[in-house]
Each structure stands twice: as structure tokens, then as C-alpha cells.
Amino acid sequence: MEKHNLTMLNEFILMGITDLPELQDPLFGLFLIIYMMSVVGNLGIIILTMIDSKLQTPMYFFLRHLAITDLGYSTTVGPKMLVNFLVDENTVSYYFCATQLAFFIMFMISELYILSAMSYDRYVAICNPLLYTVIMSQRTCWVLVTIPYLYGTFVSLLVTMKIFNLSFCGYNVIRHFYCDCLPLLSLLCSNKHDIELIILIFAAFDCISSFLIVVVCYLLVLAAILRMNSAEGRHKAFSTCGSHLTVVVVFYGTLIFMYMQRKSSHSINIDKVASIFYTLVIPMLNPLIYSLRNKDVKFALHRTWKKICNIFSTVSSYTKMEKHNLTMLSEFILIGITDHSELQAPLFGLLLIIYVISVVGSLGMIILTKIDFKLQTPMYFFLRHLAITDLGYSTTVGPKMLVNFVVDESKISYYFCAVQLAFLLVFIITELFILSAMSYDRYVAICNPLLYTVIMAQRTCWVLVAIPYVYSTFVSLLITIKIFNLSFCGYNVIRHFYCDSLPLLYLLCSNTNEIELIILILASFDLISSLLTVLVSYLLIIVAILRMKSAESRHKAFSICGSHLTVVVVFYGTLIFMYMQPKSSHSFDTDKVASIFYTLVIPMLNPLIYSLRNKDVKYALHRTWKKICKIFSTV
């Protein structure tokens, strides 16, 4: 980047959709509903085409990637636009603007070519039905979506870097509601002939080439349909293309309307309306078109809804189930922690004490960080959510485990097992990323103390905890539904003291390759990405601390990180020990000990670490205790 570029502009001001105050609230409500429908619809299509056995065809593979691109560019624009309705000044940082532009271009270009790939898929299905599975093999499908993603990324980076390497003038008002190429070009002082030419060439090539593929494919499809003798055959062929053709007409119609206007009738307001349509309305319409016009999707949605209801409903009829595994298994038997009767009573007492301390400590931390006025900072906001996740997964496992010590047979119902697995995954994954968010918070506090309150604003903090909750819920439902949609054998003994994914996989009769791969990929991503965030944050913190001249400043900086670093080492140390053992030394007993540690002992230790090592928490606890004593002394 050119230096004067960065020193002149740190942020842009987005003009927004309208400057009329009376329209702000209704428009916010309308666009919030549209965006939520878009997110729910596209996530639904993604999940449905992944888990339903009858939607494992090339057509629905492309539909899944269409939903990914829809979700991608609507989320690139939507949340920031909605936030701008609620704030006084619609500012966007220099780097956020560049990032928004890059992701928007990437997803838009990818969608153009995925729509082309879908039209080619429909051409092969109708014109070469006997060779369809051969031509549209899995490898071909992956090539047809990978190329658009790679090409979209290349064009996106090229255009974004070209624009943001040029010099902006002092005027920083973008006449739009998001960072788009054309409004940004009007703010440039440098010679923009090259970048305008690049954008024109790529935009023309992308629109014309993708549109030509669609037109040629549908002309060939139309010719093939007209040659069919059977009216029923023609109707069936048209129906397979109906949904895709509707999506194509809506998408390309909007783009043609936007870019083919005459200059005399062109206006910024018309651009904004068209942009709203293709960034928010089209991503909402596409899932509706494919669910309302497509029988396969409707039936799959109906089947999945029935399965979800049957898994999470306490009263269900086995006759409604299509899978024979549910008629065979109504419950599981948990092997428990130990089968030595002499150890049952002391283990019950010990684990009961640990669980009670964990509940009291976590609840205490939640209440304390909520009511004490001196703990209303980002650090203690994250600590409160860490306590919520600790309480969540310890309560998911603890009570049932304790009950199993005092009953003759450690049984767990089929549905309770599914619910326990789902909640455990939600809270464990959320904790991983909340610990990452806390490390980022400590990095900002030490490396950017003057900008701490600006960077770690309340909105930022909520985003950093909301994303882990939403993501973990998605992963949890995906894995739980995948496992419980497979067939269990008659053997129902779980070699653990709670329902975990790996012991459940041993009981399956179905092919478990797919679900094992999903678990491996997601577990690796969660562990590595969160741990990398922590490591990078603390490496930057160490560098910043080593540059400090004062020993007192270094000691203060280390003390700020001490509690969090202890919690991170304990939590990740346990997970790494559990999952990185060599197979030769692996055993279920070792797994049980490690599981007890991270499901019960760590939730007990975390509040103790933060209360014993943290002066603010100790003083807040002291103040709250004095207030409680005063209340009871007056009564």
C-alpha cells in the first residue's frame, strides 16, 4: 500500500440506503427479516443436500454450492448494512472495506459460473440421460465448482489490490450501502484508466461467457425436448429445469437491468434498489424457488423434519420411523467409569463435590460479572460466556453420570443420548472459540491499549461470542443428525460414561466413512484454528512485552494474561493429550480419565483460577458478599 494512501484515509462513510429517518426502522425490520430468511434458507439447503441420501446427485451438489455462494455474498453485505441502520454514523474501516469488496466479488463471480455449471448439468441429464452418471462423475462436479472458486478468488484479489493500491482523495463518502468497485473508483485521485479497463474486461467476460453457456445449454435442452414424442416426457424434462431456469432469469435479469441502463436514466438510487435485490432478495428467493418448485427437496425436507422431530421429541411412535435401527434400539447402556463396586461410593462422593463446586463457581462467575459495575469490561464479558459454556457441558454430562452411580443399570434412552451428544458438542466447540476470543482480547489490551475500548466495542464482543454459538450449533446438529440417521446394530453398550461421538460410531452397522471424515475435518479445523489464534495472539503479546522497558510494565502485562493462559494450557493440554496419543498406547480407560478431566474438573478449575489469580474478581466477590451481608442484617 502507498503510505500516503493509508495516512489520508483510515475509514470510509457509507451513505446508506436512505437518509430519511422515518424510513430507518421499517427498512431495518424488513431487511432483517429478508436476511434471516436468506440465512435459514441457504443453511437449510446446505445441510439438507449433505445429509439426505436421496439428494446425493450432481444437481443437488451444485445446488449446495449455489447456496454457499448466496450465503457468502449476502453475509458479506447484510450484517454491516443492518448495523448501519442502528448507528449514528455509517463508518467502515479501510481494511474492512477492502475485505468486504474482495469477498463480495469472489462470491458473485463464483455464483455466475456455478449457475453455468448447473445449466450444463441439466443439458447432460436431458440430452444424454444414459451417460449422465459417467459424464457428471464426482470428479467432474468438483472440477466444475473448484474452478469458479479459484478464478473468483484470483479476480477478487486482483481488482481489490489494484483499487486499494491507488491514492484516495480526502473525500471518503461512498455513495452506496456497501463497498463496491464503482463507488470506490469515484473517490480515487490516481489515474484509474487501468483499473477501469480491468474491471470492464473481466465483468464483460464473466457475464457474457457464463450467460452464453446457459443460453447454449438451454437451446440444446429445448431442441431435445421438442424432439420427444411423449407429452409426459416433455413435461418431466421441463420440470427438471424449472427451478434452475427461474433462478437464472431472476439473477441475470437483475444484472442486465443494472448494467445495461442508458446513462440518461441511470441514477444512484436505482443502483441501490438493484443491489438490494441481488445481494439480499435473490439469496432469499433461491432456496424458496428450489423448495417450492422441487418435489425432491420438499420430500427431503419433510423426511428430515420428521427425523429431527423423532430425535428430539420425548413422545414418538416407532411406526413413523423409516430406519429399522430405531425399532431395534430404544435405549443404550453406559458402561460407566468403573465396574469395581468398592470404588462406586468414593467416586460418587468425589465427583459430586467436583460438580457442585463447578456449578457454584460458574454460576457465581456469571452473576458476579453481570452485577458488579467494575467487571463490565470485554475481558469479563468473555469470562461470563466461558462460565456459561463450562456450566453447559458439565451439566450435560455430570447429573446423568452421578445418577448412574446409584442405579443398578446405567441406561440412557435413545433420544436423551442424542440430546446429550448435541449439547456437549455445542458447549465444547463454543468454549474453544471463546478462549480464542479471550486471547485476542488480551492481545488488543496489551498491544493496543489506547484503542482497546474502540476495537473491543460491545458490538465486536457480541459478534465474537455469537459466531461460536451459531457455528457450534450447526456442527452439533450436523454430526448428531448424521450419526442418529445411520443404522445401529443390536449391541447397545456404550463404552463410556456419557454419549460421545466416537463410542457411538463403534455401535453402527452402516458405513461410517462419511461421518468419520466429517468429524475428523471439523475437529481438526476447530482445534487447529482456535489454537492458532491463541498462539499467534500470545506470540504478539510476548513480542510487545519484551519491547517494554519497565519491569513493572512487563509484570503487569504478564499478570493480565496469567489466568487466561493457565486456563488455555489446562484445556488444550487435556484435548491434545486425549487426541494425540499413539494408537499403541490408546485405551478407553485413558479416554475416560481425560474425559472426566475436561467435562468436570476443568469447569471446576476455571472459576477458581479466575477468582484466586485475579484481584478484580476477588474484590468484586468481597464487595458483593458485603452487600449480601448488609441486606440480611437489615432484615
Structural class by helix and strand composition: mainly alpha
Q: What's the total number of strands?
A: 6
Overall helicity: over 70%
- Would you tell me the overall average pLDDT? 82
- Sheet having the most strands: 3 strands, mixed
Strand order of the largest sheet: 2-1-3
Number of helices: 22
The proportion of strand residues reads under 5%
User: What overall form do the CA principal axes indicate?
Assistant: globular
Spans of at least 5 consecutive residues whose pLDDT stays below 50 are 1-7, 314-327
The H-and-E topology, N to C, reads as HEHHEHHHEHHHHHHEHHEHHHEHHHHH
Radius of gyration: 28 Å
What gap, in angstroms, lies between the N and C termini? 67 Å
Can I get a quick summary?
By secondary structure, the chain is an all-alpha fold. The protein has 22 helices and six strands. The protein has helices at residues 3-8, 21-51, 58-86, 94-127, 132-135, 138-164, 181-185, 193-226, 231-259, 268-292, 295-312, 325-328, 341-371, 378-406, 414-447, 452-455, 458-484, 501-505, 513-546, 551-579, 588-612, 615-634; strands at residues 11-14, 91-93, 173-174, 331-334, 411-413, 493-494.
